[in-house]
Amino acid sequence: MYINFSPSKPFKSGAPSLSSTSKIQFSSQRVNETFQKVKTPVSKNVLLVTDSWSPQIDGLATTAKNLAKNLRINGHNVLVIHPYLFPNIPSPSGYPGARLTFPKGLNTKIKNFKPDWAINLTPEYSLGIMSSAILKRNKIPYVT
User: Which positions ≥6 away from 5 have C-beta within 8 Å?
Assistant: First the structure.
């Protein structure tokens, strides 16, 4: 493969100069060797915490599902913590579909999964508050 360089402006003084028809040849073998040296991502255990999950239909539930799906496609092990894994009631906040969760056993679930890192999509709701405290206590890195 050849690429022609035709600079429209001359280089500043002191910079290397190219003729208007300089050609650079890229070796496909060299490109392949370079890509082989790049390490492939290592599979991680990713904890995803959300207070919005199916059967609820909203932007957060859709985002959480898509995020979990894409993490799995990219080879990661994903554990989704959502309200329907625990006893829950409709939230008194008045937000339609929101659940107030009583996450008995959350600490055990997190410890057994041994996450490398976590994503907390709802840090202001019951599962988010509890999981943030557990993640901090166990020094597991997380983002919100």
Answer: 18, 20, 21, 22, 23, 24
- Please check whether residue 109 is in contact with residue 81, taking contact to mean a CB–CB distance below 8 angstroms: yes
Secondary structure letter of residue 74 according to DSSP = T
Closest CA to 135 of 125, 124, 114: 114
Both tokens of residue 119? 């994503």
CA angle 133, 46, 140 (to 5 degrees): 35
Q: What is the pLDDT of residue 76?
A: 95
pLDDT of 10-38, one tens digit each?
Answer: 545 555 544 544 444 545 555 556 555 55
Secondary structure E strands in 30-106 = 45-49, 77-81, 88-90, 99-101
